[in-house]
Amino acid sequence: MHKDGKNFQREHYWRLFVNSDSEENRAESFSSLYRLFVNELMAYGRGLGFETVSCEDGVHDVFCTLYSHRKRLKDVTNITAYLFKSFRNTLLNTYKQKAHISDMETTQIHFSTEVSVTDTLISEEQRQDVSKTVAKLLEGLTDRQREAIYLRYMHGMDYHDIALLMNMHPDSVRKIVYRAMTTLREKGKQLHNPLLSALITYWLATS
């Protein structure tokens, strides 16, 4: 599904869930929101290094809290950022409690992610080739750079929302994204891959 279409669906079901006086409508919209977000939240949690079971528990806790606090959510403007932030905090709080570590130590958490190239104008073989190459290039970035790029380009979040999610200033997020993309562009040039160069140039232009 196209990203704009998915966002439209999310906003529609969110408004219905938050504002509807019908219990049936609330339940249906709540279930739809869960289906639209569960896979992305799970992927994000695994990217943060958490096991599948922990991610499943985290998603469950977030959506239980969502339902019980529905009346407090009318001012939420970015649904994706709100749920990702809630999910991240839930995972990290559980981790801190179990491991008895501080907030400072959780900022050092490792982040990794699978890269997906969805351009329909190139072949499946080319998409796989570019995805593998970008994934390898991302390994040379810092954890925070990888996470910021993931949120920026895989989920379309703006710098303000990423900053809230990662407990950073928006200007700092902008800088690490720009530096990361500059690094990727320089390394990408050395590979002489025109598709990869075009992809990175596009990302850099929109950063």
TrEMBL record:
Where the record annotates domain RNA polymerase sigma factor 70 region 4 type, the positions are 134-184
Top-level taxon of the source organism:
Bacteria
Q: Does the keyword Heme apply?
A: no
GO biological process entries: DNA-templated transcription initiation
Q: Does the keyword Transcription apply?
A: yes
TM spans, by residue? Answer: none
Gene Ontology molecular functions = DNA binding; sigma factor activity
InterPro entries per the record? RNA_pol_sigma-70-like, RNA_pol_sigma-70_dom, RNA_pol_sigma70_r4_t2, RNA_pol_sigma_r2, RNA_pol_sigma_r3/r4-like, WH-like_DNA-bd_sf
Keywords, A to Z, come to: Sigma factor, Transcription, Transcription regulation
Spell out the family assignment given in the record's similarity comment.
Belongs to the sigma-70 factor family. ECF subfamily.
Supply the name of the protein. Answer: RNA polymerase sigma factor, sigma-70 family
